[in-house]
Amino acid sequence: MDKLPKVAMPLVILFIVLIVFVSKSTLTIGSGRAGVLYKTFGNGVVTDEPPLGEGFHVIAPWNKVFIYEVRQQEVFEKMQVLSSNGLEIKLDASAWFEPKYEFLGKLHQEKGEAYVQRVLLPTIRSAARSVVGRYTPEQLYSSKRDAIQAEIFEETKKIVDGQYIQLNEVLVRDVTLPATIKTAIESKLKQEQESLEYEFKLITASKEAERQIIEAKGKADANRILSASLTDKILQDKGIEATIKLSESPNSKVIVIGSGDSGMPIILGNN
Hints:
The protein folds into four domains: 8-69, no CATH class; 73-177, Band 7 domain (Tetrahydropterin Synthase, Chain A), CATH 3.30.479; 185-229; 232-269, no CATH class. A hairpin with a 4-residue loop joins β2 and β3. By secondary structure, it is of the alpha+beta class. The strands form four sheets. It has a three-stranded antiparallel sheet with strand order 3-2-5. A three-stranded antiparallel sheet has the order 6-7-8. α3 (115-132) crosses α5 (145-160). It is built from seven helices and ten strands. The radius of gyration is 46 Å and the shape is elongated. The model has no long low-confidence stretch (mean pLDDT 80). The chain has helices at 8-25, 104-110, 115-132, 137-141, 145-160, 179-229, 232-247; strands at residues 26-29, 33-39, 44-45, 55-58, 64-69, 73-82, 88-99, 165-176, 253-256, 266-269.
């Protein structure tokens, strides 16, 4: 440095200052993110202008930019809540959410970067306790999971909408009951299933019996109608037709004409 010309020294210092200034004055915001500008010598957080979007930006070196992820995110939460009869239930849930882009400055100013821990998670816990407390363990285990999920979503959304957070979905991933309660419920459900199967068998058997009765009645009616329509003359004619067909058969036989009841032929075969 001592060997540099006296004129070059200020240029070197100016170049270094320029590099520092440029490095402090430029910013690149990545995909799915946005920046909240903080003006040190202004009014602080900028809330009346859109956030800084993706890409390259030039800012005053004395200002700051706070980066937020603005695409959909997921947060998981494990909770212990009470059912309507006071039993402890373990609930695993997750939420899909994103900050409201146009209110990102307000979110930063009022809630801060830890808004998920300060606002979203406490609201989900509160809603889950309120909703689960309306149901019995049996309802939680079997038929009401979709309803519980929808109710938790609605109650959470009502609160966080005013906190600059957009809630997209709440998913109840697992409901864990005490082992004894779970066993009792499964046993009851099994008994109900067996009862339904037995009832189905009884109904099937009853319908089959009814079908057989109807079929037998139909046959009886047909026989009764047939018997009523048969006269001695018709029977004799039928007998004569049968005799003629048998006489034409190549098998050996002896036919005694007029020797049977009502004058019908008697047919004597080989056997």
